[in-house]
Every structure is written in structure tokens, then in C-alpha cells.
Automatic annotation (TrEMBL):
PANTHER family with a match to the protein in the record: IRON TRANSPORT SYSTEM ATP-BINDING PROTEIN HI_0361-RELATED, METAL TRANSPORT SYSTEM ATP-BINDING PROTEIN TM_0124-RELATED
An annotated Gene Ontology molecular function: ATP binding
The name this protein goes by in its record: Metal ABC transporter ATP-binding protein
Record's signal peptide: none
Domain spans labelled ABC transporter: 2-232
Native source species: Deinococcus rhizophilus
InterPro entries with a match to the protein in the record: AAA+_ATPase (IPR003593), ABC_transporter-like_ATP-bd (IPR003439), ABC_transporter-like_CS (IPR017871), Metal_Ion_Import_ABC (IPR050153), P-loop_NTPase (IPR027417)
Keywords of the record: ATP-binding, Nucleotide-binding, Transport
Family: Belongs to the ABC transporter superfamily.
Length: 240
């Protein structure tokens, strides 16, 4: 459905990912896990088609191009929340991004946006400026934009960050439902426990793919040690 083969990404002299091979399937909820600087966001950006001409192969479902089928949810803190738009506007960007510049949003688009905002619990906030939202509310708005887009491949970069435990549960359940409906869901997270509970596919990354499989296959002391304790660059990641 979606994957990379022998992927290497360098930023100048720094190698962020080396020889990474991994597949993500429709109907699967996958978590990409690793310490800070492990190359997780880099992998997601490659899958989203945001890093031009990576070294290695990026494979998609035949007949789909990344732009048509991917919904990418970046890390919340990388976005400009002072931008003068409302919750509704942001969710609508999920639709207009699909329509291109030549078509205006129609009634069906408005209905999709309304139901996406309802599903993520922020419909009542639809007229509010995005700068006036809490961290958890912002994350829900990003998810509403993702749902409104109706992509087959959902890529989320640390969607649990800054979200309270109750909201995290709702959010994970929502993503699980998306996978159960046949979408491929790939989430970058630092939360191993949530990933083990909700995901059926874990990928441990530390510049390379350390392990890839079901939670039971992947979650071993050896793999956790290899991923979090000592990086392949030879220094420890104390923050992880
Ligand atoms: N645009 C860039 N230019 C130069 N180096 C970069 C760039 N983007 C990322 N890097 C470096 O590449 C490495 C991997 O970064 P990446 O953001 O993929 O890691 P990550 O696993 O998502 O980390 P975190 O958990 O901290 O978000 C890091 O060492 C980072 O400093």
C-alpha cells in the first residue's frame, strides 16, 4: 500500500535515515517510535511526498499519487497559530486542498467539514479563531482537517503531544476506527504504551529501522535497548 525501500535521507553532511525499508498496509494502525532526532519525522515527510527526490524507493498503491491520497498532520508546534483563520477555515482546507484552486467548496464539502468537526468534538468551536484554542483543541482541529480530506493514507506526527489523557484516548480510538475502515494510519509517537495498546504494527527507528512487526514481536528488551539507549551514531540519547 505504502512504503519505502532502502531509503537514505541526508541533510547536508548529516544522515537522518539510512537504508530504511518498511511497508505500511491498508487497515493497519502503525506507530513509528524512536528517540529525539531518530529520523521519524523525516520518514513521515518522505511518505507525504514533502522531501523531494529522496535516495531510495517510495512506493504507493498503484494508481494513486501521494497528493491525491495522503493526509499529513504535521507537529502542532510547526504551524503558525496566529494566522487569522477560524476552526472552520482550517477544516475546510482539507477539502480545498483536494479540490485545487479552480473549484469552490460546495454543499457536499461543507457537509464533510461539519461532520469532521463533529467527529473530533470541535463543531461548537467552529467560529473561533485558531489562536484562541488550547493545545488539545488545536490537535482536534488538525484531525478534523485530516478527516475532511478523506485520504487513504493518514500520516500523523506526534498527535498525542500536549493532549490530556482523556482526549488521547478519544484520539487513539478515532485513529483506530480509521484503520478499521480500511485506511493506512501511520503515527509518530514517543508514547510506547499507547502504541502497544492501540496499534497493530510498530516500527522502531533510530536512524535505521531497528525492528518492524506486531507489538509482541517488536516490544522486546533487546529492541527497546537498541532503539533508545545508544544511538548508532555512538552517543547516548539522555532525553529519551
Ligand atoms: N531540515 C533539516 N536540516 C538539517 N537537519 C535536519 C533537518 N530536519 C531534520 N534534521 C536532522 O535530522 C535528524 C532527524 O530529524 P527528525 O526530525 O526526522 O527526527 P525525529 O525522530 O522526528 O525527532 P523528534 O522526536 O525530536 O521530533 C535530526 O538530527 C535533525 O536535527
Amino acid at each position: 500500500m505504502l512504503g519505502v525501500e532502502n531509503l537514505t535521507v541526508r541533510y547536508g553532511a548529516h544522515t537522518a535515515l539510512e537504508g530504511a525499508t518498511v511497508r505500511f498496509e491498508a487497515g493497519q494502525f502503525s506507530a513509528v517510535i524512536g528517540p529525539n532526532g531518530a529520523g521519524k519525522s523525516t520518514l513521515l515527510k518522505v511518505l507525504a511526498g514533502l522531501l523531494p527526490d529522496p535516495q531510495g524507493c517510495v512506493r504507493f498503491d498503484p494508481g494513486h499519487t501521494p497528493r491525491q491520497c495522503v493526509s499529513y498532520v504535521p507537529q502542532q508546534q510547526t504551524l503558525d497559530w496566529a494566522f487569522p483563520v477560524t476552526v472552520w477555515d482550517v477544516a475546510m482546507m482539507g477539502r480545498t486542498g483536494r479540490l485545487g484552486w479552480l473549484r469552490w467548496a460546495g454543499r457536499a464539502d461543507r457537509q464533510k467539514v461539519a461532520s469532521a468537526l463533529e467527529e473530533t468534538g470541535v463543531y461548537d468551536l467552529r467560529h473561533r479563531h485558531i489562536g484562541a484554542l488550547s493545545g488539545g483543541q488545536r490537535q482536534r482541529v488538525l484531525l478534523a482537517r485530516m478527516l475532511a480530506r478523506e485520504g487513504h493514507l493518514l500520516l500523523l506526527d506526534e498527535p498525542l503531544t500536549g493532549v490530556d489523557p482523556a482526549t488521547q484516548e478519544g484520539l487513539m480510538a478515532l485513529l483506530r476506527r480509521q484503520a478499521d475502515r480500511g485506511r493506512a494510519v501511520v503515527m509518530v509517537t514517543h508514547d510506547l504504551d499507547q502504541a502497544r495498546r492501540w496499534c497493530d504494527h510498530l516500527v522502531l527507528v533510530n536512524r535505521r529501522v531497528i525492528a518492524d512487526g506486531t507489538p509482541d514481536e517488536v516490544y522486546t528488551p533487546h529492541n527497546i535497548e537498541a532503539t533508545f539507549s545508544v544511538s548508532h551514531l555512538g552517543h547516548t540519547h539522555a532525553e529519551a
